[in-house]
Design goal:
70% of the residues lie in helices and 0% in strands. By secondary structure, the chain is mainly alpha-helical. It has one domain. The longest helix has 22 residues, at 28-49. The radius of gyration is 14 Å and the shape is flat. The relative contact order is 0.11. The model has no long low-confidence stretch (mean pLDDT 88).
Length: 61
């Protein structure tokens, strides 16, 4: 996967998360949980892209 594509996905994920945090009114705890879940998903995705988690290639998402 090209580096530019990875960068674009990270920017889009960050902007969407910022928009949700800024403009959608919800409880502070829910926002915190949402942020943690999105960060964990992005980290796992990056680890799979760079081959650190090769054993997850067999798991369908």
């Amino acid at each position: 996967m090209p580096l530019l594509t990875i960068l674009i996905v990270l920017i889009v994920a960050g902007v969407v998360l910022w928009l949700v945090n800024t403009y959608i009114p919800m409880d502070r705890q829910i926002k915190k949980i949402l942020n943690i879940v999105v960060v964990i998903i992005v980290i796992i995705w990056l680890l799979r892209i760079f081959g650190v988690l090769d054993f997850l290639k067999d798991v369908s998402v």
